[in-house]
Amino acid sequence: MEIICLLISLVALLASIFIFARFRSLRNRRNTIHKYLFLAMSTQVLVRLVLYIDQWISRGAVRDNGNVARGHFSIETTPVLCESFYVLLEYTRTAVFTWMLLEGVQIHTHIVVVFPDNVKFRVYHAIGWGFPLILVGTWTVVMVTYHSETVCWWGYPFNSYFWILEGPRVFCILVNLVVLLNVVCIIFMKVHNTNNTEIQKIKVAVRAALFLLPLLGITSVLQVIPAPLDKSAVEFGVWAYSTHLLSSSQGFVLALLYCFINHEVKAAVVKCWRSFRLTYTWSGERGGNQSDEQHLPGERIV
């Protein structure tokens, strides 16, 4: 289930990145943040797929008391390569959270206009890509120093050092939660000034909240909840399925909401399609007219 959802998310994210980069009318700050968020998420999905497929193949080749068959290459059995993949995975995962934080700041700026909107985009790059680099670099040094005795840092998410990364991620989620609540309050105030009924007010606010949930990363809060290993099988199953389903399909949900069904994106795609059809039709008619003007040798033209 997780591999299938990751593959669907990867295709949807790459298609969204292509759309945002292809159309000039979509090149604004909001869509640029979307694009870099999709880039970080697609890289994370790709790394996850490589690790999962490697585990699938290597564990299928296990022979004789759990030893991997001789001559079989695996990322899991190559220490430096394995740790490097997990460092890249945690970097891209942290970058997803920081770009989600920037999404929340951008939404808050657009609605409340508290933060200055003329900030250079290099500041966004420094926060979105640079801050995760500092966090993951610090975490890597700590892991190499104090957790190098295990093969491929096995079980590192359950280690206390992992909070070097999880702490800032939880902070990003909390900030986006505050942004979400503030945006919903503002929507309530704006709707309250109209003549809508109470039910319509609730519908508008709830719809806006649900629409912002995937982008702001509130659904990722399940990923930082410790696994209920000491609970019953049913509780662990609910946690495992819900967490992995949300995390693996989040890329597809983001691409669907903020690209495929976005009115601005649909307008740009429709405009490009109409332009292509007009060009193709005009070329076909021109070719047909040129063929009509050709005559056989010796034919008398009146």
Overall description:
With 302 residues, this protein is an all-alpha fold. It contains eight helices and two strands, in the order ααββαααααα. A two-stranded antiparallel sheet has the order 1-2. β1 and β2 (67-68) form a beta hairpin. The model is unreliable at 291-302 (pLDDT under 50).
SSE topology sketch:
Layout: H1 2-22, H2 29-60, E1 62-63, E2 67-68, H3 79-112, H4 121-146, H5 163-192, H6 198-216, H7 233-260, H8 263-292
In short:
The protein has 302 residues and is mostly helical. The protein has helices at residues 2-22, 29-60, 79-112, 121-146, 163-192, 198-216, 233-260, 263-292; strands at residues 62-63, 67-68.
Which key phrases capture this entry?
302 residues; mainly alpha; two-stranded antiparallel sheet; 8 helices; 2 strands; 73% helix; disordered C terminus
